[in-house]
């Protein structure tokens, strides 16, 4: 299934059913009173989280979603049935805005969230309702109220505890596949990851946590160059960033080049994203001649803790998982 994180849809709640104008007609009863029933209420449009959903793909082409209209009332005081609700299931982390005004209506983050986005029109009252001591035979009833139509913008921001950032081919996909059940495509060339990947990690202690891997960032990403910029929003909700660096690509003469490049792109995209807690990880330590480069990087960064590991062989990966679990438990 293709990953889709934005969609524009139109929703319409149901119209209320018309009230009935009717009079009792039975043998031997010449002047029966009013007995028109009420119309049924129109159905609501309801937004609900579905934990199994990870994308807005279902709404890429499904542009109009409608609840059912209420049924009209009938004689003998028979009320019309209420219209059936239209329930729209969305992945956790979906932000719903008014597409015409860009005003955010609701941010569906809680798994129990259920939100009535458009209430159905009220059913009209039948003429029985208008009978009084001064008007015993009302010959009018109410039409039902119309439903509400709204144009909505759906925007998905994945809910993850940890976000992986780094240059293309830093080994993020290999890392997420080694610490979780996620199985992204892995290859030795840039931009293997074309959409965000979400994986659940079960540490040896503490609660399970979610890790999001996004396409690698390159210089100029904040201006739309490359792929990662369009997916940075998926790590805006994370508590911790794991900054993964391919140690084999470090220049000992200028060891912080890639580190600074990524942080520069993060800060230009969002200051709040740049200020998140970062765990710096040097990956691919299984390759030859990497220790000297790792030492040069650590000496240049000085007071910041740096982990070294090999996602391919698994060496050092457990230490990273334990550290993440500890940080998340304290936060």
Automatic annotation (TrEMBL):
Any GO molecular function: GTPase activity
Matches recorded under InterPro entries: G_OBG (IPR031167), GTP-bd (IPR006073), GTP-bd_Obg/CgtA (IPR014100), GTP1-OBG_CS (IPR006074), GTP1_OBG_dom (IPR006169), GTP1_OBG_dom_sf (IPR036726), OBG_GTPase (IPR045086), P-loop_NTPase (IPR027417)
Region (Disordered): 67-90
Cofactor(s) named in the record: Mg(2+)
Keywords in alphabetical order: Cytoplasm, GTP-binding, Hydrolase, Magnesium, Metal-binding, Nucleotide-binding
GO biological process, one term: ribosome biogenesis
Sequence positions that bind Mg(2+): 173, 193
GO CC term, one of those recorded: cytoplasm
Domain Obg: 1-159
Subcellular localization, as worded in the UniProt entry: Cytoplasm
Gene3D superfamilies associated with the record: GTP1/OBG domain, P-loop containing nucleotide triphosphate hydrolases
EC class: hydrolase
EC number(s) on file: 3.6.5.-
Subunit structure: Monomer.
Protein's recorded name: GTPase Obg
Species this chain originates from: Desulfobacula toluolica (strain DSM 7467 / Tol2)
Encoding gene (name): obg
């Amino acid at each position: 299934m293709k990953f889709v994180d934005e969609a524009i849809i139109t929703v319409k709640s149901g119209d209320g059913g018309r009230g009935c104008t009717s009079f009792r007609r039975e043998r031997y009863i010449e002047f029966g009173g009013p007995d028109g029933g009420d119309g049924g209420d129109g159905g609501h449009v309801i937004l609900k989280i579905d934990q199994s959903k990870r994308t807005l793909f279902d709404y890429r082409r499904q542009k109009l979603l409608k609840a059912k209209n209420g049924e009209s009332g009938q004689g003998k005081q028979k009320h019309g049935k209420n219209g059936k609700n239209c329930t729209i299931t969305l992945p956790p982390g979906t932000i719903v805005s008014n597409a015409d005004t860009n005003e955010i209506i609701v941010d569906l983050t809680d798994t129990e969230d259920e939100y009535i986005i458009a209430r159905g029109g009220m059913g009209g009252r039948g003429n029985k309702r208008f009978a009084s001591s001064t008007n015993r035979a009302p010959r009018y009833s109410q039409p039902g109220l119309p439903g509400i139509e709204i144009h909505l913008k759906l925007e998905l921001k994945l809910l993850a505890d940890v976000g992986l950032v780094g240059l293309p081919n830093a080994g993020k996909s290999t890392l997420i596949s080694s610490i979780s059940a996620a199985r992204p495509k892995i290859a030795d060339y840039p931009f293997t990851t074309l959409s965000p990947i979400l994986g659940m990690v079960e540490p040896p202690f503490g609660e399970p946590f979610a890790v999001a891997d996004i396409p690698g960032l390159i210089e100029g990403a904040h201006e739309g160059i490359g792929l990662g910029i369009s997916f940075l929003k998926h790590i805006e909700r994370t508590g911790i960033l794991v900054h993964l660096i391919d140690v084999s690509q470090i220049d000992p003469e200028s060891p912080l080049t890639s580190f600074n490049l990524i942080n520069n792109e993060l800060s230009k995209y969002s200051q709040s994203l740049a200020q998140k807690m970062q765990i710096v990880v040097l990956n691919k330590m299984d390759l030859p001649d990497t220790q000297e480069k790792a030492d040069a990087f650590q000496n240049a960064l000085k007071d910041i803790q740096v982990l070294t590991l090999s996602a391919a062989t698994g060496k050092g990966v457990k230490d990273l998982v334990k550290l993440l679990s500890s940080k998340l438990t304290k936060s």
